[in-house]
Amino acid sequence: MQNRRDTYPIDTAAKLFPPTARPTNTSVFRLSVLLKESVNPKALQQAAETTLKRYPYMAVRLGRYGFEQSDASFAIQEETGTPCAPFDSAKEPFLLRILWYKRRISVELFHALADGTGGLEFLKTLLYSYMVLLGRDIDPEGKVLLPEGAMSDEEYEDSFLKYYDGAKAPVYKLPPAFKIKGGPLPAGGRNVLHGVLSVDGLKRAAKRQEATITEYLCALMVYSIYRECINESLDDEPIVLSVPVNLRGAFPTRTIRNFFCVINVSVPIGHAKTFGGALRIVKEELRQKTQEKNLRDALAQSCAVMEHPVVKAVPRFMRDAGTRFVFAFFSEDVKTMTVSNVGRIDLPSDMLPYVDHAETVIYPTERSPINCCMCSVDGKLTVSFIRTVKETGLMRYFFGFLARETGEEVTVYTNDWGTLDGKV
Amino acid sequence: MGKCEYCGVTVEGRAKCPLCGRKLHKSTPNTMYPACRTDKNTAAEKRTPYWPALVTLGAVGICAWINLMTRGSAGGYWCLDIAAIFAYLWVLVLHTVKSKTRGSLKLMLQACFIIAMLCVFDWNAGRGLWSVNFAIPFACIGLIFLATYIVLTRKMSWNEYIGYMIAVLLFGQAPVMGIFLGFTHFVWPSFMAAGYAVFTFLMMLMFANGRYKDERARRFRF
């Protein structure tokens, strides 16, 4: 029996999400695995129940004093809508969904609950339980939190507070970034477009440029934005990519909750005119901003505001209004798009023969209508774009460039949201 | 799976390339996603403003009732001032703040409502004509100043720029209409507004940035 509690506190990073979430900024991300055969819904339901028993702090709803344990029974759903649909925290008993459609198993999480790394741990346990229930012999190899294992308090700890030493870091407002604009797709849904390619070819292409895969893809994104979205006679703001960074690399923790910061990679228009120029700036910025000192500053910036006694003392509705302003002014205004690299999903080797590839999708926002997320499993990288605008030029250039430069076959597919009228 | 030669990618589950829209030689049915439904929780985003409308009607109605009950034989219709303020607030919120139409159009509608509101205030306050003599010209000067500030600080396309130039000219000419119609007795504020508008218009024409000048030369050959 797990050590269940009635309430769990909302961690420092997660305080941003509930006040800012709305249908056009859902704060919901999706992690999916595509299997090589169709999903068995009965086994998945059972696996979901087992997994939620292992992660009781994920089976919660948003209450007045934090996350409250939900006593409702959890049901998996067949996928019928578009990814990253909003949660109605007042009505829905859980802040996560487990969806299935043909070969895909998806977990959609409200971002207040966990970050990508935490979500992945949950998905891996779910997948392990599912496969074991189907009678497969899986050796976890220490890569999965086992369903029968004991939950520890560290898994839902607020690691921001654990590593915050009270230091103060100055908060600067960056200049406004270039914003992608376009004709809106119908409201109430989001279009996703995935491109799958081999990691090997991409690795070789990145190595030729003496860059990592993240640096290479970020630079390509900047260059694609410049080529397809910038009006040179009108736009002069820098192209800024918001890149979430997992803080677990610099500050060891076992938390499943949020423990990430966002760094802004800013490339002036003049440098984005060539791929090489964009790559040079992206490399410099990413390497400099992911140094431990800078990550510690980012951590201090998050905590210093949220833990300030005055901020804590003000009534909640005022704090929420302030949070919305800070989000719009310091986050939305200063970025062009979010590019999140979830990285390699490290599955036990016994599970790999059943998995085709994985997908990660991050929600778009009003001012950042195209966002990108990527992940890889078993040598296959999936780059997933989510958008609420009609224009596809950015994706076309991005995947075309990748296919040319890596020499690998890029397979694209989409959910067709808003595009079944014969247009792209 | 089909191959799009134009984009250089392989396409799964579609008869057309999702990137460029071109037809593919081979196509497969979409087995990756279902035909997607709209979100369940979208309704909250588009709410009809029933409560604000009710508050407006209630406030104006109560004011009108009090006004009519207490005005006597020589009293004014001050409830019209309240109605004008509420009308202006509705335009401010629904059009100026929420609408995604052009900035110059928003500014012109603002000017229309400000002028109308000042006229109503003046008419109710004894018809001293202070609105056409002073308030409207100075309001127009303020709006021209605002248009200049927007043009200087915001990036905009050439047609938006022309929209602001037209707005500036109209703001300058509106007070002069009062002179022609015989309402305005103190003419210097109106002429000052007109002069400032013409000056701003000429400055916008002369010191427009390169991209506007290029567009103007390309489209109008001057």
UniProtKB/TrEMBL annotation, chain A:
<protein>
    <submittedName>
        <fullName>Alcohol acetyltransferase</fullName>
    </submittedName>
</protein>
<dbReference type="InterPro" id="IPR023213">
    <property type="entry name" value="CAT-like_dom_sf"/>
</dbReference>
TrEMBL record, chain B:
<protein>
    <recommendedName>
        <fullName>Zinc ribbon domain-containing protein</fullName>
    </recommendedName>
</protein>
<keyword id="KW-0812">Transmembrane</keyword>
<keyword id="KW-1133">Transmembrane helix</keyword>
<dbReference type="InterPro" id="IPR046283">
    <property type="entry name" value="DUF6320"/>
</dbReference>
<feature type="transmembrane region" description="Helical">
    <location>
        <begin position="50"/>
        <end position="69"/>
    </location>
</feature>
<feature type="transmembrane region" description="Helical">
    <location>
        <begin position="107"/>
        <end position="126"/>
    </location>
</feature>
<feature type="transmembrane region" description="Helical">
    <location>
        <begin position="132"/>
        <end position="152"/>
    </location>
</feature>
<feature type="transmembrane region" description="Helical">
    <location>
        <begin position="194"/>
        <end position="212"/>
    </location>
</feature>
<feature type="transmembrane region" description="Helical">
    <location>
        <begin position="75"/>
        <end position="95"/>
    </location>
</feature>
<keyword id="KW-0472">Membrane</keyword>
<feature type="transmembrane region" description="Helical">
    <location>
        <begin position="164"/>
        <end position="188"/>
    </location>
</feature>
<dbReference type="Pfam" id="PF19845">
    <property type="entry name" value="DUF6320"/>
</dbReference>
